[in-house]
Amino acid sequence: RRSSRLHAWLSPKIAAAIVRLDTIEMSGPACAAIARLRPPEKKAQPGFIGDEQTNTVRNAAGLETSFSKVYLPTTNLLAMFTESLRAKVFRVMEGRNVCLCAYGTPNSGNKEMMFGSDDGTGVISMAIQTLFAMMESGDKNFCVTVSMCQVASDMVVDLLNPTDEASLQIKTNRSGFYIEGQSYQIGRNEGETVEIINQGLRVHKALTTQMQTVAKPQILIDVVVESCSKGSHLDQIVSGKLRLALIESGKEALTLDNGLRNLVAVIQSLAAGVASSQVPYNSSPLTQLLALNLGGNCETTFIATIDPIGETESIEKMLALMTKIPKIINTAVVNKSMLSSEIQILRKEIRAARAKMKLSQPGRFLHDIDQKDLAEFQNKLKNLEILKETTWEAKRQKSVEWREKRKTSLRKLGLLHVLQEKIAINTKAEQQAKDLKKGIVESLTMLNRYSSHIKKEEMRQTQWASDEKFDPRKIEASKEKVRKYQKQRKEEMLNYEKQSQKYRKLIESAVEEEERKRKTYMMSAEQLSAYHSDVEHNLLHISFDNNNELVDSLIDLERKKCADLVEFKEADDKVRGHIEARYEAEKKAIRRGLEREHLKELLVENKFRYEAFMHRNEVHMLDIFKQYREHFEEQKREMEHRYRNILKQSVQDAVLLQKKNLELQAQVNFLQKNSQGFR
User: Fold this and answer.
1) Residue 77 neighbours by CB distance under 10 Å
2) Ramachandran region of residue 212, left (φ > 0), alpha (ψ -120 to 50) or beta?
3) Which residues lie closer than 8 Å to 643 by C-beta, 6 or more apart?
4) What is the Cβ-side half-sphere exposure of residue 118, based on CA atoms within 13 angstroms?
5) How are beta strands 69-71 and 176-179 bridged, if at all?
6) Element (H or E) spanning 196, and its range?
């Protein structure tokens, strides 16, 4: 009995311990490496073969490299994400830092895997979708910020707000390394967050083409998810960061890029157990930015993308580097903060410091205050401003400012077109425009067809006219066909002009509507508030005096009815019935008037609600329509500038070729004369 009681007492504790052990085992190591082989583009003997059973990659010599998981080209990307990466993304919602790093050689498919190809979705889209699906299913408030940069050797560029400066500077604080002045954007939903990242990718492609850099840039994307319980006023904030890194290595890249060589040195040092103070993080910007993910507070997963028929030496070096990843020791903890409480505590300390220095005392000067106390007071003020900038409201305002600055910066660089911002328009007008464009295209097709038929018949007539034996009746039939085609072409031309005119009017009306709305969009907050008040006053301006008059009429009517009935008290019932019927008819008319006024009030109130709803929608579309005309004119100027440059270059090339032609002709004449003299 004693043993059974002991077993009953220990069973829940043992079960809880087993659950904890299972949880620890399922969480996996803080650093891991998986491999994904892409399908070979050519029908050639692969130099590297993967095995999903043993989770190894074997080279042509038979040497095997072990991974946490190996995925063959036949494995779907979604299956790989679900099995190996989705659990890592879940950890971000718990408040942990997670890094998914795609590391591969050229043509290994790492960029297609992360960003997705034309026929599928990439790891980044899947991760964002997972994050927002968890947010929607929870009962917390969330704030998602996205930042994105590229690193090439010692040059760091902000992809969400690129500038013409040489490089951004990397600084340090208590959290580690950070990019000074790096912008961020607030992602309110899954589609907006993915679009922010896609815009950064388009900027990256444009800058890579425009900038003459020796090394190929590496891409770092940070998605920070902050959450707190509803109604907590930013107390107990849990913050997790998802870093999505895209690093392309290789023989040429290791030779040209100092950052990649230093990254290899950092991984080797950490795998060898070197103390963190001796790890060469400061050797390059890339290693500084990845310091948190390698040996820091993060759960890191390297995804080695392998081209089976790629360069053997580069792939073998990458495989050797991947064997060192699991040996790196990271300490991933939950990131919690008490932002609201910290701000309140800091304000109390500032008030205490101000009272201690007696700043409000008359005749008190700065030289009378202890410099140590003054420096401490200034430091607390600075910390308070930093904390205020980390509040969600401040981040939202800053995100709007960064968005406007980004447009200015891209306009200076001539890259405003890479944003490809979508303009929301009226669905009905959009469908009408599509139908008109379809009709215009069909009309043009028919016009070209009729013209070709006419030309063909005219060519036949010319051939038949030259032949004396040909029957003239066929020529007349052909001429009749030509007249028929000409008539049909004329009718189709009228139809084409009619549709084109409708299309132009539709565009003009859309522009006029946009100009009308822009007057409201360009208002300041005070002007917009005054405009709201005017709208409310105009819509709710109801004449209640008319209602009072109707009520008074009812009372007077009832009084007159009583007086008439008293006056005709001696009259028969027929006369009294006529009197009551007349007054009842007038009473019904007055009541109908009251009902009409009441209905009018309801209609006006509903109209106000509808107008207010529509106005809120118009204000919500401010960011979409405000720069419509400016974007169009900017693109027009850019196209004209490009056309002029091409035309100028063409003229210069033509002049140069003419000059070269004259020189060559002179040389030919000279050689001919010399050859004649030699003969």
Assistant:
1) 19
2) beta
3) none
4) 0
5) unpaired
6) helix 190-210
CB 184 within 8 A of CB 147: yes
Structure tokens at 231: 């109604």
Phi, psi of 387 (to 5 degrees): -65, -40
Sheet of 56-59: strands edge to edge? 48-51, 56-59, 64-66
Q: What is the mean pLDDT of each run of 10 residues along the chain (679 residues)?
A: 37 36 43 88 78 90 90 89 91 92 89 77 90 83 91 87 80 83 88 89 81 75 88 73 92 83 92 89 91 91 91 90 92 79 73 70 58 76 73 80 83 71 56 79 83 85 76 82 88 86 76 57 49 49 47 65 65 66 72 70 66 67 64 77 81 82 85 72
CB 592 within 8 A of CB 553: no
Q: What is the pLDDT of residue 126?
A: 92
Instruction: Give the C-alpha separation, 408 to 396, whole Å.
Output: 19
**Element spanning 336, H or E:** strand 336-337
Tokens at residue 587, please?
A: 């009473």
DSSP letter, residue 194: H
What HEC string does 72-119 produce?
Answer: CCCCCHHHHHHHHHHHHHHHHHCCCCEEEEEEECCCCCHHHHHHCCCC
Torsion of CA 600, 603, 609, 614, to 10 degrees: -120
Q: State residue 642's pLDDT score.
A: 81
Looking at 410-543, which runs of residues are DSSP E strands? none
Give the model's pLDDT for residue 363. Answer: 53
Asked if 235 contacts 338 with a C-beta cutoff of 8 angstroms, the reply is yes
Q: What is the pLDDT of residue 677?
A: 63
pLDDT of residue 100: 95
Q: Under a CB-based contact definition with an 8 Å cutoff, are residues 163 and 179 in contact?
A: no
Tokens of 568: 């005709």
Report the alpha-carbon distance of residue 375 to residue 582 in Å, rounded: 92
What tokens appear for 444 in the block? 């043009």
Give residue 66's identity as a one-letter amino acid code: S
pLDDT at 3: 39
Length of the chain measured in residues: 679
Helices 573-620 & 472-521 angle (0-180, nearest 10): 100
Residue 525: the pLDDT is 47
Distance CA 105, CA 101 (A): 13
CA distances from 145 to 97, 109, 148, 297 (A): 14, 27, 10, 19
What is the rounded distance in angstroms from the CA atom of residue 49 to the CA atom of residue 601? 78
What residues contact 25, with CB distance under 8 A and at least 6 apart?
A: none
- Rounded to the nearest angstrom, the gap between the alpha carbon of residue 293 and the centroid of all alpha carbons in its chain is 25
Beta carbons of 132 and 143 less than 8 angstroms apart: no
Contacts 24+ apart (CB under 8 A), 504-513: 506/429, 506/432, 506/433, 506/436, 507/433, 510/425, 510/426, 510/429, 511/629
